[in-house]
From TrEMBL, chain A:
The keyword Iron does not apply. The gene is TUBE1. One of its GO terms (cellular component) is microtubule. One of its GO terms (biological process) is microtubule-based process. Pfam families: Tubulin, Tubulin_C. Belongs to the tubulin family. This is Tubulin epsilon 1. Keywords: Cytoplasm, Cytoskeleton, GTP-binding, Microtubule, Nucleotide-binding. It comes from Piliocolobus tephrosceles. Residues 279-414 form the Tubulin/FtsZ 2-layer sandwich domain. InterPro entries: Epsilon_tubulin, Tub_FtsZ_C, Tubulin, Tubulin/FtsZ_2-layer-sand-dom, Tubulin/FtsZ_GTPase_sf, Tubulin_CS, Tubulin_FtsZ_GTPase.
Automatic annotation (TrEMBL), chain B:
It comes from Piliocolobus tephrosceles (Ugandan red Colobus). Acts as a positive regulator of hedgehog signaling and regulates ciliary function. Residues 47-200 form the Tubulin/FtsZ GTPase domain. One of its GO terms (biological process) is cell projection organization. Transmembrane segments: none annotated. PROSITE patterns: TUBULIN. This is Tubulin delta chain.
Amino acid sequence: MTQSVVVQVGQCGNQIGCCFWDLALREHAAVNQKGIYDEAISSFFRNVDTRVVGDGGSISKGKICSLKARAVLIDMEEGVVNEILQGPLRDVFDTKQLITDISGSGNNWAVGHRVFGSLYQDQILEKLRKSAEHCDCLQCFFIIHSMGGGTGSGLGTFLLKMLEDEFPEVYRFVTSIYPSGEDDVITSPYNSILAMKELNEHADCVLPIDNQSLFDIISKIDLMVNSGKLGTTVKPKSLVTSSSGALKTQHKKPFDAMNNIVANLLLNLTSSARFEGSLNMDLNEISMNLVPFPQLHYLVSSLTPLYTLTDVNIPPRRLDQMFSDAFSKDHQLLRADPKHSLYLACALMVRGNVQISDLRRNIERLKPSLQFVSWNQEGWKTSLCSIPPVGHSHSLLALANNTCVKPTFMELKERFMRLYKKKLPFSLVTLSDIPIPHDLEQGVHFVACTRHFSFQISGRFL
Amino acid sequence: MSIVTVQLGQCGNQIGFEVFDALLRDSHSSHGLCCKRENEAYQASCKERFFSEEENGVPIARAVLVDMEPKVINQTLSKAAQSGRWKYGQHACFCQKQGSGNNWAYGYSVHGPRHEESIMNLIRKEVEKCDSFSGFFIIMSMAGGTGSGIGAFVTQNLQDQYSNSLKMNQIIWPYGTDGVSLFLKVSERPGVVALACNPSTLGGQGGQIRKSRDRDHPGDLMEHLVPHPEFKMLSVRNVPHMSENSLAYSTFTWAGLLKHLRQMLISNAKMEEGIDWHVQPPSSGLPSLGKMSLNKDLHFNTSIANLVILRGKDVQSADVEGFKDPALYTSWLEPVNAFNVWKTQRAFSKYEKSAVLVSNSQFLVKPLDMIVGKAWNMFASKAYIHQYTKFGIEEEDFLDSFTSLEQVVASYCNL
């Protein structure tokens, strides 16, 4: 069994990371009744005997003593990390796996990437090496960050290059939160474009997500639940969105529900690698099957169902509805409409009590309404994991390598150009005394490239 | 006359388990329908062929399990142990942690050479345990990374090291809408026979074909069905297909079963359901000269050789004349040479009568052609190529495979 290390960078990254670890613990607690440290848990947690002083005390078998997350927490200001360390999850994190500073990056990619990058390079490398050493067989780094800020965006992407150099055999999966239209950070277009360039070159797979879509999904669920449309068939609190029963404090923070969705995404992504099933799909297979060309590695994700039904015996119609929903634009975690764009490849990761025949039937049913590129008409990758997520009887994660990412990137480019044309607010950017314009040009060039690529694919190969 | 099974990858291991389980269940089933002595002889030979004895009487399968990630092997081993009736050898498996990532190149160029020695050692140990070793049965899928990549590598090695024994590859064909990076690289090596199986008709068939070999030397199978090294793709069909619950209420006649089987052969049907009864062999009895004429419908399945295995009650009365029709066969082999039948009174599992057809015919032409077409499309767009060149498979290797496959398709097409 392989292990993965989660690197959470910046405020957004750490908040999502916190939700993720909470959910992961709950999932493993539900599955592993005996409390034995097994291979499934070892993919994200270490078993440590805390009575032993020093770094040793790692136990590979037997009962669980104390679980430590395989995580590295990085933030250039202390607020968020401190809160995590004072919260109920404090024992899950190894205090030696943190890197914090005081002042923050000031929402400036250049500060995050260049200034803090060079300042903390050695420390970061050391922590990463340590966490890799604790792993028997490290397969993947999961990086969680936002694109619009300074630390997540700048330092997060600086990490990528470092990981590629130090651990070339290990996959780099990046979960990036893209800024939405009404973003609270003015310089977010600059930060995002600069970060995009790094993602393009150094990441193996990127899962772009934006806040607006998450927000829309939450609103829709609330509407469904509160309007009583589905009557008693829907449980009021879905585990996808709420953390009821979680270790965290009762009063919810504003982004909690949204972060939970992303956390669920990561758990479902790794479920087939951690748990058994009749059709396994490991993380390296995701990259292999969904990335036909090295730079086109942006996967639009969607998660269904979003609420739990109280009726345990799900009639087939509900199952089919789950598949249909996965392709609807309301369920995507990015503002995108995959149904009306071109698919390069698509992966369906199913969890729970679903049969292969159901899977096949639904693929056949949905195929006519989807457009696949000409040389990959049968571009489906499927996996079946027998363990469903907590509180659900089955679930589906769809990953689509689809040209519908184009509008998001184009919009980003537009917003960037608007700022750039007015040379706004360059004073903030050139604070760090580095020739920024060159990078910005490159960033814009990249977005143009992506557009070119997707046009190529849709135009030439169709 | 022992056979060692090599199970590769997730698919190979899952199917391998089903085959051994079916074998043993059949062996112990009570509907022998034959005299006690014959039944005992059957059980003994079945056991000896596929299992070796352990001290406490639990048979151990003669198998080597190979996979690049541990989940499936663990599952398979525990399922076997739980059944209580048989199990796998404790040290008969080889596994790694990371998997092959659905990448043929990774399986073939990286995992293969790296683990060559360990895997071949395991196989050698199994072979040494056999009193009289007759051949290998290799189960793998085409679409994955381990099954197809390491499968190809291991088969090559086996051919080098054990060139005199039979090697039969049971390959699982990818389902119609499966396999995103579908890359077929079937290396054609002498002595290797490919038994293509569609996922819809699995373990039972495997069990059937192997049981049938109780009576004769597996080498005979080769001899009958593979007259020329260029043509070694076999297919297996069996009748009847029925759920166990309905078996008690159905009766079969040999005439009916054989008629269905024959039509399945000539219309290239995979299952008893939905046979196309309109397809008929050419009427004059002489195969058309020169190229295939248009009215010799491409639906008609010409065979090179066929083997029918009949098991069950009153088997001696079964009439197989329908299979001796020269119209079914190519012109370069007389029906008397091309067709063989093996009969045994001992029934298979709960079926009172069952018939299996192993055929070397054109059945594979269409699927192979389709896959080659799709792969070529992808290759022309250079899609996914970087994933393979990363591990040393260059474009020339792709082109070589395409050429050899086109050759096979053409040869079968021109029958």
